[in-house]
Each structure stands twice: as C-alpha cells, then as structure tokens.
Amino acid sequence: MLLLRRCHSLTRFGSLITQRHQVTPAVASCAARLCSSSSSSEDHRSHQRVHSLSWKHGLAGLLAGTGAVLAYGLHHHHKAERADIGVQTLKKSSSLPVFSQEEVTKHRSLEDGIWVTYKGGVYDITEFVAMHPGGDKIMLAAGGALEPFWALYAVHNQEHVLEILSDYKVGELNLEDLKKQQAVKSSDPYSSDPERHPVLRINSLKPFNAEPPPEILSDSYITPSAFFFKRNHLPVPQVDPASYQLHVEGLPGGVLTLSLEDLKTRFPKHTITATLQCAGNRRSEMNKVKLVKGLNWGIAAISNATWSGARLRDVLLAAGYKPDVAQWARHVQFEGLDTDVTGTTYGASVPLNKAVSEEGDVLLAYEMNGEDIPPDHGFPVRVVVPGTVGARNVKWLGKIIVSAEESSSHWQQNDYKGFSPGTDWDTVDFKSAPAIQELPIQSAITTPADSATIDRSDETLTVKGYAWSGGGREVVRVDVSLDGGKTWQVAQLRSGEKGQAPEPSPPPGRAWAWKLWEITAPLPPDAQELEIVCKAVDNSYNMQPDTVPPIWNLRGVLSNAWHRVKVKIREDEDEE
Amino acid sequence: MLLLRRCHSLTRFGSLITQRHQVTPAVASCAARLCSSSSSSEDHRSHQRVHSLSWKHGLAGLLAGTGAVLAYGLHHHHKAERADIGVQTLKKSSSLPVFSQEEVTKHRSLEDGIWVTYKGGVYDITEFVAMHPGGDKIMLAAGGALEPFWALYAVHNQEHVLEILSDYKVGELNLEDLKKQQAVKSSDPYSSDPERHPVLRINSLKPFNAEPPPEILSDSYITPSAFFFKRNHLPVPQVDPASYQLHVEGLPGGVLTLSLEDLKTRFPKHTITATLQCAGNRRSEMNKVKLVKGLNWGIAAISNATWSGARLRDVLLAAGYKPDVAQWARHVQFEGLDTDVTGTTYGASVPLNKAVSEEGDVLLAYEMNGEDIPPDHGFPVRVVVPGTVGARNVKWLGKIIVSAEESSSHWQQNDYKGFSPGTDWDTVDFKSAPAIQELPIQSAITTPADSATIDRSDETLTVKGYAWSGGGREVVRVDVSLDGGKTWQVAQLRSGEKGQAPEPSPPPGRAWAWKLWEITAPLPPDAQELEIVCKAVDNSYNMQPDTVPPIWNLRGVLSNAWHRVKVKIREDEDEE
After folding, report:
1. What's the predicted TM-score (pTM) here?
2. Cα–Cα 20 to 30 A to B146, which of A297, A555, B127, B191?
3. Where along the sequence do coiled-coil regions lie (chains A, B) (predicted)?
C-alpha cells in the first residue's frame, strides 16, 4: 500500500503531530477515494451498516498476524509514555455525549474527523489512522462500525487492542441506532438475503450485486468469501440442506435425484482453484464511452476461490450418461432454486463437451474456500464451470438437464452476448451472437487507484493488479506501461499467497485461476503525471485490445481493453 | 475484383480503343501492384520462371467456368468483326522476330506493354488485358510464361482460346531461354526442391518460403495446394513412399514402426478442414514499426485445406499409450526427415493432452485436398495439429516421441515465442516465454489492396478477407470500418465455397477452419480516402489488438493487430 509505505517513512521524522499534518493531504485523498463508491452505492450505505453486525467467517491470517500484533504493542508502549496527546482517555461512559448514527456517519475524512462505533461506543480515531499497522484499510470503517472488520481481521481480538481503542472514545451511540444494527427482517422478497460485509461496493441492493475495493481484491490470492464479488439475479433462496434435492434429467435412464449427502458421499470430492468473473466486470469504462444497460461494475467483479464438490462428469455418468448421448445432446442446462415473482428460475447452460470432459473440471461445488458455500454464493450447491463466464456458474442448483438445446432462459438467449459497437437496441438481433461461455484475456490495476498522488521522494512506484483468461488459458505475461502505452515493462506474476509457495503449475488448458502481478519501477524523472497501463497475454498469445470504444457494446459486457490509471507525482518542493 | 467490375462497366461505353485509354490508369496501378513483390522476391523471378513449366495440379473450376467460356466466345465473335485493331494476326512464325526472356521480362506494364510466352511464342497482350474475363489475374503472368496459369485455370484448354492468343503473337522466344524453361537440377541441397507456381510471392528461395497474392487467397474457401503458403525450414527431402517408415517411441511397449501402407490401412481415415498459419504471418507490419528478425511475410502466410490421415490418438494407442502414461509424459515430439548439413532434423512438440484427445483431431495426414500431400507440404506424411501454429505441424514426419519434455529443437526452445515490446536481443530470455501453440484471433483484408483507387461512380465498395482463431475457437463476427476504426459494420461470414452449401457447423472447440468474409457498403459521400479496417471476434470473444507497436516483438511473430488498408476515391470529374 502506497499510503502505508508513506506512513512508515514519515514516522522517521518529527513528532506525531507533525507527522499527522504532513500526511494529511495524502490520507485525505486516500480517504476520499476509499469512501467514494459507485453511483448507486451511496443509497445503500445505511442498509449496509444495518446488516453488518455479525460475521461468522473468521479469516485469521489475512494480515500478517505477528507483525501487526508487534506493531500494536509497540504503539501502545509509545503511547503510554506520551503526554502531548489531546484526546482524553475516558473509560466511563456516563459522562460522555450520546451521538446518532447519522452524526457518526458524517465523520469519515481527516477534515471532518474519523469516527467509528464499537459495541455502542463512538470513537474518534483521527489521530490513530496514520499509525494503524494495517495501513489505510482502517479508512474502510470510517463513519461506521468496527465489528465486521475486526471479525475478518482476527488480530484485533486482543485485550491491548481494546485498550488502544478506549483511548479514543468520545461518546455513546444512541440506543435506537444501536438496535438498528440488529437487522430487522421485513416482508420483501429480499428480506432473507444474508448479511454482507460493509466494505463491499454495492451496485444493486435488490438483487444484491457488489464488489470489493480493488486494493483489497489483490491482497489475497484466494479471495475471502466475504469479499468475493456478489452477483445475484434474484433474491437469495433459503435452502434447507437436510431436504435439499438435485434432479438430473434428460438422460435415457430417467431422472436421478440426489441429496446433499449423496453428492458428498457417492462421488469423489474434487477441489480446484478457479477465478469467476462477471461478464459485466469493468462495465463502468464502457459507460464512459456511451451509456450501456447494466450494473456499473468497477474492476472488481472478479474473484478467486477454491471450490470443492462432485465432478459434474461423475454425476452425469451416474445418471446414465454414455458417449452415444453426444450424438443428440449438445448442452447441459442448469436451473437455480432462485425464482422471480412468476416462479421462473434462474437458468443457463454450457456445452456438453465441457460438462463431460475429464479436463473440463466442472464441479457441483458444496464448499468454497474450505467451508460450506455461503448463501450469497449458492448454498448448498452451485455449479462451478471454470474458465467460463460467471453467469453459467449457476448457484443454488436445483436441476441439471442434458439437452439438444441451450437453456431457453432470458440470461442464455437474450443477455450475456457480445455485439459490434455499431449495434444498438433498435438493430440488435440476439440470435445472431453466441452466448458468452469462455471469457477473453483480462487484467486490471488494483494499486495505485486512479487519481492517486505519488511523492517524488518515493523514487519508485509499485503497481499491482490481477490477470486472468477464460477457457483454462494461462496468463503468461503482463506488460505494464507508465507512459500511456509507449514503453512497456514486464511485471512479476504470482500464483499463490505472498511469501508462500505458488500453486503447482496447471496442466495445459486447465489454468482456471488468475495470477496476481506486481512491478516496482523507478519514477520517470521528468513526469508530473503518469498514465499507468496494463495488458496481459495468455498462453494462446491473445492480447487485450488497446481501447474501449471499438469493443463497446450495448450491454457493456466483455470490457477487457487495457486498464488505465492516471496518477499525479507531487514534487518534494510542494511539501516543504 | 474491382478491376474486373470496372472493365465490365466500361465495355458499355465507347469504342474498344477509347475504353483502353480510359482504363489505363487503373490497370497500370493494378499492374504495378501485382508485379511488385516483397523485397526479396525480385531476385528469384528468373528462378520462378525456370521452374514453372509443368503443372500437375489441374484445378478445374477455380474460376466460374461457364461464364468465362461464354465471355471468351463473345469476345472472339466481336473480334472477328473488328477491322480497326492495330495488332496483326500472324500465324507463321518464320517471319517473326526472336526475343530473349530478358526482353520479354521488360514488358509487364501497360506503359511498356504486356508480353507473355506460350510454347516458345511471344505474345503482346496489352490490348487484351482489359477484356480478360478473369479480370486482373492475367497481370500475374505479365513478362513470363502462360503455361502454369493455364494449367491451373482449366477453362483455357479450348481451341478458340488459342485462336485468340494467336492474334497477339509478336515473336518467338530464343531457343536457349526456351530450354531454360526446363528446370536444370544443380548439386545444391535445394536442387531437388519441387517446382512451384510462379504466382507465389517468394520471401526466401532456399529454404523455400512463399505466399499467394491476397486476392487469390480469398477466392477459394479451400486453398488449392499450389497456392497454399509454403514455409520450409530446410531443403525438401525426397522420400520414397514404398520404403517410408514412421517410428513411434517413448511408450512402454517399445518402438512401433509403421509403413505408409500401415498408416493407410491399419487406422481409420479421418478428414478435417483446417487452416494453418505461420507464426510470422503479417510480420511485414511489425517491420514497419521497427525491424525484426524473420521472413517479411505479408498477410497470406495462412491457408485452408482438407487433410486426411490417421488420428495421432489412434496411432499412439496402437503404440501402447494408456492413460497412466499421462502421469509422467507431458509432450509429444515430432521429428521431420528434413535435415541441415549437420544432420539435425526439424523438430517440434505439442502438449500430450492435445495429441491424445478425441477432440484434438491431430492427424498424421497423407492427403491434402483429396490428393497425396505435395512435396512442399510434407509428402508422404505430415502432422496436422489443427488450431496450432504452423511450426508444430511437422512435415515429412519421421519420428514421434512421447516424452516428459518438450522438443529440444531450436524451433521449440529458441524461436516461435512471443515477448514484450520492451524485450530486445540483449535482454531476451527464451526460457521465460512459452512456445507458441494455439494462435490468437486473426483477420485481414484481401481486397481491395492497399493504395488501390476506387471510382466514386462505383457507389459501393466490396471488402473481402479472411478470419481465423487458434485452439478451435470459431470466428463469430468480423467488424469492418471504412473510417479508420471510428464506426463499424458487421461483415457476412462464409464457411464454404461461394454459392455452395457451407460446411457443417463444427462442435464447440473444434472450429479448425477459417471463415471468409465480405461486406458491400456505400462509399461515404465526402471521403477522398478511406482507411479500411477489419477486426475479428472468436467465440471466446477474444478480439484483435488495435495497433501494432504494443504487440511488436523482436521475432515479429503473432502479428494480429487490426488490419488496415488505405484506398483513394477518384471522383468522376477526374475521368472526364
């Protein structure tokens, strides 16, 4: 993290107060960035808070645990010796003012102060931001509750962390807002939707569609399930795992019905690491060219997880699939248990050869990242069709149909297809284009963020991102340019958590997982602004197109042009 | 053909003489284009002639036979009535001057006159060019022999065609040059190389590397073998089919040796239509950015043929391949029978899973377009690895080795790999990039040619080309722009010969053949020049990159940016 690095370098000089003043512009810019969401998410901010209290998914080790604890300890020790800090350490709540959530929410920048709530207390942590061992991630909680973040970052579950927090207490949250933090279920079809992590940037609340902040996305090779982008088409169905049934139809032997227990015990458990990407990832860049229909996704409608389950191939064989079926069958259809008001289920299909191939690795997955699949991702069973657009990875799977025809669903027939930039809603013929299956080569820059400011004194710049290609094609190279595409350097690729051994190299055509990449390059001596660009290459040597307009399409799908980010370089003179 | 259409429209007005004068500038420009070859081909022109006498490959029906014959008849009838033609009809050869081949070669433009030779006679066909029913293709023979072209276009084998020709006789070819037209074999390693069609544009004579003119390439969905691009790395070996042996090694059962007869009789004959493309196709466009190492291919180092032979899968199974081999083996290596002076053979390898997959369709082919594979294309047996770069489709196949390692050949290890544009010969590490296997999405414009002139009175413009993608990915769309990429129209795709039923749609992932495409669009009213651009999309929705510089690489491979052609529009006023 640039900000974290800057914070660390600043602590070498001057007093804490001076440090804070020095760091203000950068932190403020960062805070502004972190707090700004996509156009539609602002409306959902209060909802996010309401639903953000309890977090089952303890994700220990997401931060480097030991280092962070040491840093906290160190801070606490220093802090105890300080006498010049203006914030009072108040332990008794009775003497403190009571604030509304609305008031707390106003404090989410260094200018207005950074407030957070925790178990009914209100804390002004403005002073603490620059010292936070976890860097600028603390800004994600600005104006809201700490609980969901601390649940994710288990390192906070220590007494001395609470002691540090108590130093910053400035008030109490009023009872009414505290109660609101317990979700009240309403009668609308989305009332039983699960709680989500408030860090997600919401593109649509009902159905729920949200993506993580980019800088969090590239922190982990395996995306924690809570941060994995969510793309629901309908309300999340509540499925009782004990009575769950999966029906397999269309084969000569008749219908095969399997319970969850059947899936887990009658078939070998197979695990893959696979990246899923929404066809609309990076749609916002197409919207800048000309408005399209669709959710305004940023660059993070893509995530990577491990998936375990029964192979679809094994289940189809058990249901009577034999090679001669391929003489008439061409597709395998999936129906979800999620329905609209008319009872129509979500549906999609994939080519039969992908479904039955030993090398296709299509799973009926019941685990995500080693745990039961969370409700938002298809509990208890979803299809994972690695290398294939998210829309075919049907969640809450209810039915599998071997068929001569593609799924007749809206999403297969009249959506998720690509068209020429010259095609508009008056001329489009959905039958003229194939349903998106494999996705093309993709990459994006997660750090630095667009419009960030880099200090000249940093001398180098670290750029990070992800790269992935569909169809099991392995990413073999990512080129990065700091001058808008005139000259290029090759980034380091990574296929595992940082500091850990990389995942074993996949067999040809089965590279289902993304690669994270990183490059540290000297700041160009005379530049005042950099246009950072990335482009990836897969092992079929497919490249990303240079620009957005020639791939623009009316649905805003398949947005995979070079990703571009502009940053400013601040000369040292400006600071002194 | 634009020129042909122009000729037809012109014959509606004025006398023949007037017509010729009107048409001169366009024909001259066209002639200049057709006669200009790539930089290196000029040196080989005389060689081409020497080797161009006999043509076994009768390719009847390449032109629409009936129409052309009617046109000839019509012409002959009109001609017989004419009295104002200046060229004398001379039947007796004794009274005619004798010319050297050198003198004939000087006459290959409308300015200098168009001369051709036929069976020792020299003919000035300048007058006839605008009337040729086959359009501007006649210019391909300018300054040389007619025989190889007439052998290809069987419609010429009629008495009245000879009568027409005789009208234009102006002399005799001297005996010495006539004898030279019988190839004299020398002692150099390339002396037994086969004869080639003189229409090919030679990029290198030894080894022989040549491509057809683009406008011929897109005339046929199945490229006639004589026109199929030739890419040899070494002299063509002379292989006796009766004693030919293929060795299959590396499997537990020991070495399997097969004769040509074994291949033809012990295994089912399997036929596919597959496009092969050289990794260096369109390299000349990279050379314009910055010089690269490699043959200066135009856009026609790609061709499409039907291939028949035994499946490699079947042969490997017969040689003892079992699934457990895949536990240690990863590659299948191929060695050619072509050798350099040290005895090193050409070699390459492909991933094992491609080789053994039922859907991989890898052939040990002994037929091309329904006949024995011609010497230049690997007689008697070559590997056809559909969807994979030409370099792995090893010709004159001598040995197959199942192996844990890739081929150690120069061409696998230190060639045919892609690099970042920032990588130069000082920094390149060939181990850092994967050997090219599947090729990326590709398309190019075959008609009109760059720098062609279009008449405003034509009102519409027809653009033609080809599109193909590697890995069995089907081309699903070609976008064409007449304004340099600002606006786009969708071209018509074709997967069969014109006027015939298209080939059946391939199963997913097995679209090995290209598509030809065509679009007829109104000429933009105010434009004086058009920048025509094409870009293709495959069913993984991979697109071509916009520009060449960002994909430039030191070997000039994988050149698949949008193809661009500039044409001028001539206003009617200019002509009158």
Report:
1. 0.74
2. B191
3. none
